[in-house]
Specification:
Elements lengths: L1 E5 L1 H4 L10 H14 L3 E5 L6 H6 L12 H24 L4 E3 L2 H4 L1 E3 L2 E3 L4 H8 L3 E5 L1 E5 L3 E5 L1 H12 L3 E6 L4 E2 L11 E2 L1 E2 L1 H4 L14 H11 L7 E5 L5 H6 L6 E4 L2
Parallel strand pairs: 1-2, 1-9, 2-6, 3-6, 9-13, 12-14
Antiparallel strand pairs: 4-5, 7-8, 10-11, 13-14
Helix pairs in contact: 2-4, 7-9
């Protein structure tokens, strides 16, 4: 089984509020279906979450009660986004159901707490894909917080023990610098903890869930001796399908 994260930069335009990339999501769901691999999908919040969350500093927890309407708005927006992703999965023959983290989990000072995974495991056991996503989640210490799709990936990796973990982004992999702004940026084919120390943590858009460095750290935490973690460009048609079929494609592989 493979665990796949569809990044917010791939399924939305992260710079434009509530902008869903339907054609791209449909193609990616079709590639997942055509691969014939057992998969579980997580997706980012993209512009359905980050724009409002950034404006009201939701990543810092409860500062004042003027943030409360923003909590409701973000939860509404990301649930609508997840419904659209699930619709594309179902359209492409993959039985899927949205599982909102903010409705079933809590956090403890920013750490996601999952005390009961029975429902998620039961869905997967009968062949229904549970689809989780970045969300606002209640926090025992901070009142609330932002749970990123990457945090969800770590939890699901622990629950399901996938053979491989794939992060689908809008770049070919990890670079020595931001390839969108630095023409000298070079693709890093393999990342380790030592290599990560020298990689820039910059981002070209507002991101309230950790940016590039947070993703790299999350990828490495999910690796073990029998499992690697891959970052691949989902904006290139057919690339995800080729990767899932075991073919060589431009990407970055994280290994311990």
């Amino acid at each position: 089984m493979m665990l796949i994260k569809l990044g917010g930069s791939v399924i939305t335009d992260k710079s434009q509020y509530r902008t869903f990339n339907k054609d791209q999501v449909s193609r990616l769901c079709r590639e997942i279906a055509e691969s014939g691999k057992g998969t579980i999908v997580v997706h980012g919040a993209g512009s359905f979450g980050h724009v409002v969350a950034k404006k009201y500093a939701l990543q810092h927890g409860l500062i004042d009660f003027s943030q409360i309407p923003a909590i409701a708005q973000v939860q509404y927006d990301v649930r609508e986004l997840s419904s659209m992703v699930v619709r594309e999965l179902i359209t492409n023959g993959i039985p899927a159901v949205s599982v909102p983290p903010g409705s079933c989990f809590v956090m403890e000072d920013g750490k996601l707490i999952v005390n009961d995974s029975e429902a998620i495991r039961a869905l997967a056991h009968i062949g229904v894909m549970p689809v989780l996503f970045g969300d606002v989640v209640m926090d025992r210490k901070k009142g609330f917080g932002i749970c990123s799709g990457d945090q969800i990936m770590e939890i699901l990796a622990d629950i399901f023990k996938p053979d491989r973990i794939v992060f689908v982004s809008d770049i070919d992999g990890l670079y020595t610098a931001d390839p969108k702004t630095d023409p000298d940026a070079e693709l890093i084919p393999e990342v380790t903890p030592d290599i990560m120390k020298d990689i820039s943590s910059g981002s070209t858009v507002d991101d309230v869930t950790g940016g590039v460095r947070g993703k790299m750290e999350s990828m490495l935490r999910m690796c073990d001796e029998g499992r690697d973690c891959v970052l691949v460009n989902g904006t290139v048609p057919g690339r995800l399908l080729s990767l899932l079929k075991g073919e060589d494609v431009p990407c970055t592989v994280a290994r311990m």
